[in-house]
Amino acid sequence: MELCTEMKLVGDTYGSGFGCGLTLTGSATIKGFEKVGEDLSSLRYENGKGLALTVHKRQEQDALRVWTEFSNHSGEAVTLEMLASFALQDVEADAIYRLQSFWSAEGKLRRETVYDLHLEPSWSGHGVRAERFGTVGSMPVRKYFPFLALEDSRTGHVTAIQLYVGASWQMEVSCREKSGRLTVTGGLADREFGHWTRTVAPGESFTTPQAVIAQGEDLYQACARLVAAQHPAISPVDDHMGILFNEYCTTWGNPNLENLKAIADRLEGKGIQFFVIDCGWYGQGAEWPLSVGDWDVNTQRLPGGLREAADYIRSKGMVPGLWFEMESVGPKSRHYNDPTHLVKKDGVPLTVGGRRFWDMEDPWVVDYLTEKVIGQLKAGGFGYLKVDYNETMGLGVDGGHSLGDGLQRKVAASQRFFQKIREEIPGIVIENCSSGGHRLSPAFMELVSQASFSDAHEITSIPIIAANLHRAIKPEQSQIWAVLRVEDSDARLHYSLAATLLGRMCLSGDIHGLSQHQWDIAEEGMDFYRKAAEIIQKGVTVLHQCEPQSYNHPQGSQLVLRELDKQGLAVYHRFENSPQGLPALPEGCKVVATFGQADRDFSAQAWLYEKG
């Protein structure tokens, strides 16, 4: 396997083999470059016409971080229509893994062989076979995660890759030659896939997003190494796996001073670190959901403003948090019909469903959001920010060298605002939410402490989704909700609470109506979570057995083992038509704590164990 890169310039000859429109690899552009140097940190290529490519590489323990820089030292501007972050040639693999993702169904593992994908070479070696996939839009985790793994089934060896992208991206697996070895490329979505071109003037350069490549003896090890290479900006306030409460599934978008105080009173002394006020604190009347963008406090609900509510939460020993959808503008906002500062496509404001989008490159917008978001967080004394993002800008927008380039620029500006928040409010804990998991890409996860794992807050597939994400993000960042209801049986409470052991515990629901017995179960689950926290935070997932195919009607069971040195956490969920009995834990281990009872369908049990 050889590391290199790929690119294509507008005007150059496309590759042969019936690939035009299927792939931009193998063009005259890349064939015109020759390697002129290599060292531990880079590969350097030139084409003899003043153009240079540098593949930067940095070894980080068991992973390799790579990115490509294109430099124009010629006397003329050139236009890129594809520039890969990386390329791997001569990959020996006969199966690929992808992580599929839709709303409330994030991270489903999909394995296909080269035969399934029709990637066998032709009888003569002529004709390109290519599988190009990715995501188009400003939600980088939609249909797929920016992830790919390739397996050699003869040895079990796996090469896995993650792209650090915030918007449209692509991966491509191709086979051109009779050897059957594969070429893999990945990076920004190109002109064909994402309407992206970028003009580079003489003396200028352009650098791609980063990719991380890791190899392992199996998929578990390769994914663990990818995730270990992520460097999230976890606040020092949030470095010990504290428990959260979010009031959304308690008030259903109707927070007010009275019910927030009542919730805080009920939670006092239960060891909950964060209390997050979700949507509904702004706007007026029943149309508050449509007024995102104004961020005026609803004085009927909060007559004393946000500060009074936040101070009360702090007085009960919890860090107050607040929800914003800061990049969007709703139809009842006073800014909705003023196109001056909105994202445009084809010269008119881009409207998706009931939302328009702030142009985050616009200095006026940055100043406005600095006042409305950062200013209100500071004034209210909030230590936690939940950032939601509930629509995608799609193919692209105005403001760049192409629609796709415009999109990348707008999203990069949003990411800079995340950084600005951290700079202006040191220690703030930021949660990345995008209708659940649409922004669970490393590029966004490195800007935040936590993320909403999904919007699947009360359905039975919660533990399935939560376990899926171990392959893509750190569990210490993956916020799993346990929504507690008065009608919940003991088995259902165990089921919901055990799912949070696959990430960060967040509670919501009918906390006022729960019986003392139900609260006893909840507090038992919280105590068990605290005992397991170090394993969740620092451990490695060594087993993920998941039988269900349907997420709406899961059948069978799921077992997840996560280990840290000689300590282990086992989380077992039973679904419909599940096998009787309990799963086998690692041979010779000693169980030191147990939570729940997996004695029927839709029940759960967890164990802490020590290995001999």
CATH topology assignment of the largest domain: Beta-galactosidase, Chain A, domain 5
What fraction strand?
A: 25-35%
Instruction: State mean pLDDT (0 to 100 scale).
Output: 98
CATH class categorisation of the largest domain: Mainly Beta
Number of domains: 2
- Tell me what the CATH architecture of the largest domain is: Distorted Sandwich
The CATH superfamily of the largest domain appears as alpha-galactosidase from lactobacil brevis
Largest sheet: 11 strands, antiparallel
Q: Residue ranges: pLDDT <50 for 5 or more in a row?
A: none
Summarize the amount of helix as a percent range: 10-25%
GO molecular function: alpha-galactosidase activity
Protein name: Alpha-galactosidase
Pfam family, one: Melibiase
Organism: Candidatus Acutalibacter ornithocaccae
Q: What is the secondary structure topology, with strand pairs?
A:
Layout: E1 2-4, E2 7-9, H1 28-31, E3 34-39, E4 42-46, E5 51-60, E6 63-72, E7 78-91, E8 95-102, E9 105-113, E10 129-135, E11 143-144, E12 147-152, E13 157-163, E14 169-175, E15 182-188, H2 191-194, E16 198-200, E17 205-207, E18 211-216, H3 219-228, E19 243-246, H4 248-251, H5 257-267, E20 272-277, H6 305-315, E21 319-324, E22 328-329, E23 344-345, E24 348-349, E25 356-357, H7 363-380, E26 384-387, H8 403-424, E27 429-432, H9 442-445, E28 450-452, H10 462-468, E29 478-484, H11 490-499, E30 504-509, H12 516-538, E31 540-546, E32 557-564, E33 567-574, E34 590-596, E35 604-610
Parallel strand pairs: 19-20, 19-30, 20-21, 21-26, 26-27, 27-28, 28-29, 29-30
Antiparallel strand pairs: 1-7, 2-7, 3-4, 4-5, 5-6, 6-17, 6-18, 7-15, 7-16, 8-9, 8-11, 8-12, 10-14, 12-13, 13-18, 14-15, 22-25, 23-24, 31-32, 32-33, 33-35, 34-35
